[in-house]
Amino acid sequence: MSDKIIKPEDEWKNQLSEEAYYVTRKKGTERPFTGKYYYLDDEGIYKCICCGNPLFRSDTKFDAGCGWPSFYEPVSESSVVYEDDLSFGMERKEVKCGKCDAHLGHLFEDGPAPTGLRFCINSVSLDFDIKNPD
Length: 134
Fold this sequence. Notes:
This protein is α+β, with helices and mostly antiparallel strands. The protein has a single domain (9-130), classed as Metal Binding Protein, Guanine Nucleotide Exchange Factor, Chain A (Beta Complex). Helix content is 12%, strand content 30%.
């Protein structure tokens, strides 16, 4: 994705809540079943809390029972980027915002059809634009 957003750490700290900064800029994780979007089932678009980049459509969200919002595909191939994550003695695929490199969560290959993927995403890394009623 072109036009990457790069800011000094102090700007991110001033822009984000303490928890959002910890998760998105320091690769933290919110506690399971505590995020504001875990139970949300409104129609709309989930965006990056840091830069507003559209990430996931609500119609790709599903209940994986894992404690974090789960999606089976991003809005576009460039919406997210991936990085190998070998922390905590595990092999995982980190999911980051394609525009600002914010840590969003992790990708697993145990999701539903049609992709078989589960994007396990921290609520605090997201913002939500509700679909306007027609």
